[in-house]
Amino acid sequence: MKTLIVIDMQNDFIDGSLGTAEAVAIVDKVKAKIEAAAAAGDQIIFTRDTHQENYMETNEGKHLPVVHCIEGTPGWEIRDGLYVEGADIINKPSFGYTGWSDYDFEEIELVGLCTDICVASNALILKALFPEIKIAVDASCCAGVTVESHEAALKTMAMCQIEIENQ
């Protein structure tokens, strides 16, 4: 079974405190990708960047001093219209989720935000855990902090044998 992992398509990353025009521009493409996966009967997993009120006191908060994705706030929520019934939601406190080994994957595709931080982190963790399965990133359904860092992340992932599609 194919698994679609939708990384951090949350309001704060789309048009909230860390939003970008590039993130806004991919929402409809990501929605179409999710709908196609649901129609095909694929497994769908959403990740949700999840911070607490003390975010600014954390290591990440000291390096990225922009309050975002505080659990329970509107910015933390997955964008309306993207979630599909039956999909898993993983709340992750950091860039990369470390519990992927609890899953049994056959093939993985990743989409979402931000290419250069959370998408890349999770893709690399998944490739390290599951080196023999196909792991792909749909570049047209991702956006980075900047266009340049998006492109750099795609190159890095490709060098690590992650397939980059729709570039």
Report on this structure.
Helix 4 (115-129) runs parallel beside helix 5 (147-159). The model has no long low-confidence stretch (mean pLDDT 97). The protein has helices at 11-14, 21-40, 59-63, 115-129, 147-159; strands at residues 2-7, 43-49, 88-92, 107-113, 134-143, 163-165. The chain has a six-stranded parallel β-sheet with strand order 3-2-1-4-5-6. The chain is an alpha/beta fold. It is 34% helix and 23% strand.
Topology overview:
Elements: E1 2-7, H1 11-14, H2 21-40, E2 43-49, H3 59-63, E3 88-92, E4 107-113, H4 115-129, E5 134-143, H5 147-159, E6 163-165
Parallel strand pairs: 1-2, 1-4, 2-3, 4-5, 5-6
Helix pairs in contact: 4-5
Which stretches are low in confidence, meaning pLDDT under 50 for 5 or more residues running?
A: none
**Class inferred from helices and paired strands:** alpha/beta
- What distance separates the N and C termini? 24 Å
How would you state the average pLDDT, rounded?
A: 97
**Would you list the SSEs in sequence order as H and E?**
EHHEHEEHEHE
Number of helices, where a helix is a run of at least 4 consecutive DSSP H or I residues: 5
Largest sheet: number of strands, sense, barrel closure = 6 strands, parallel
